[in-house]
What we know:
- This protein is of the alpha/beta class.
- The protein has a single domain, classed as P-loop containing nucleotide triphosphate hydrolases (Rossmann fold).
- Helices cover 21% and strands 32% of the residues.
- The chain has helices at 50-58, 132-145, 159-168, 186-189, 193-199, and strands at residues 6-17, 23-34, 39-43, 65-70, 73-74, 87-91, 95-96, 118-122, 149-153, 171-176, 179-183.
- It has a seven-stranded mixed sheet, sandwiched between helices.
- The longest helix has 14 residues, at 132-145.
- The protein is globular, with a radius of gyration of 17 Å.
- The mean pLDDT is 91.
Amino acid sequence: MSTPLLHVSKVRKQYTRGRFKKQVTFNLEADFTVDKSTVIGVMGPNGSGKTTLFELITGSNLPTSGQVLVNGQNIHKVRYGERDRLAIHYHQSYQVRAIKRTVPSFMLQRCQSDYPQVHLFDEPQFNVQDGYIGFMLDFFRKLRAEGRLVFLCLHPNEPYHIDILREVCERFIFVQKGVVTHSPNFETLVKDERVRAYLGKLAPAA
Length: 206
């Protein structure tokens, strides 16, 4: 059996407040596997946990429990400066997210990859002029053809955002209040009443 490209294994991230009597303010749980290269669309309300999920996958945020395996390697045990050879997080204007350091890097493993296996695009800015959208869609497809895994997170506020997701994404994740829901295609995704409420007037006709 081949090693999954990505295995998010019983990952939980919990935020609390209070020094002595801790109170949970946010909880995210995710448990899923992606066996091979594909393009996954990610949606959900602001503050639902989408960026936190991306940070956990790329190793820039430490899970409360669970582990993230990229090509079989636990990304949180890889040296900080080498984690982007496994998974890389592009935030909005294609800036790479920083890594939070918790232990000395020399105590961690060397990365077994020379090029990112997982690419996570977090609400990228799409210029509607000069063919830029077509260029980016071709880039996502190129990564997939090279055996990479692509996550495309969008917060749709224009009809063309829906068109982008429908055209390039092969499966979907919806995140709301820390709950991660998977859909095998767009048609299944938009049958979910939570998704329809989130999309509002952009939701396709039932």
